[in-house]
Structure formats: C-alpha cells, structure tokens
Design goal:
The chain is an all-beta fold. Strands 2, 4, 5, 6, 9, 10 and 11 form a seven-stranded mixed sheet that branches. The chain has a four-stranded antiparallel sheet with strand order 1-3-8-7, with no helix packed on it. It is globular and about 45 Å long. The N and C termini lie far apart (40 Å).
Length: 120
C-alpha cells in the first residue's frame, strides 16, 4: 500500500505563489503516474496536473503556464508550484497516484488534501 500526505497549502493574495508538496510512503515502487487534483465547494473534482514516472507533465487549460508539477523519485516527492494565483484557484488540492498495471484512468491512492485559499 501507498500513503500520500500533502503539505504547503495556505492563504495567499491574488498574483502570489505557493508550493505544494506530496510525500509518498509505503510501497513506493508501485507508483506510476502522479497527479494533483483540486475540489472547490459545489464544483466537480478537477484534474489540475499529472506527471508520468519519466517526468512528462500535462496540465489543465485553466492552470497551464501558471502551475508546474515536478517529482523527485529518490525522495518520494511530487510538487506543484502555483504562481500567478487567482481567486478561482481556491480549493482543496489533493495528491493522487496510479499503481503500475491499473487501468489508465484509475487513481488508486489519494492524500487527504491541503487547502489553498486565494483572497485579497
């Protein structure tokens, strides 16, 4: 099994930046792709960014050119650098991971989330 724990959320002003981190533990060699999702009250859960085991990244159009996902496999970490933040970025940000051999769209592992609030 794999455990994921997010950190780095907080309150920032519009235009500010924040760096989220996700630490994986347990059977980390089972992890394939990793991703950041976000969920705001009354909104559907949104895939923000994902990164493959080889470091190839993809982003939602709403965050492209503002957010950067990265991973450090040696340290079992995945990061999300948020910049040029907007109030609409306010959400709980969740780290997720796929298991080798699982269906492509099945995200097996989830963290509890970290709150990001963008407000003046």
């Amino acid at each position: 099994q794999v455990q994921l724990v997010e950190s780095g959320g907080g309150l920032v002003q519009p235009g500010g930046s924040l760096r989220l981190s996700c630490l994986a533990s347990g059977s980390i060699n089972w992890i394939n792709d990793m991703a950041w999702y976000r969920q705001a009250p009354g909104k559907e859960r949104e895939l923000v960014a994902r990164i493959t085991s080889n470091g190839e990244a993809n982003y939602a159009p709403s965050v492209k050119d503002r957010f950067t996902i990265s991973r450090d496999n040696a340290k079992n970490l995945v990061h999300l650098q948020l910049s040029s933040l907007k109030p609409e970025d306010t959400a709980v940000y969740l780290c997720s991971a796929r298991n080798w051999g699982d269906v492509m769209n099945y995200w097996r592992y989830w963290g509890q989330g970290t709150q990001v609030t963008v407000s003046s």
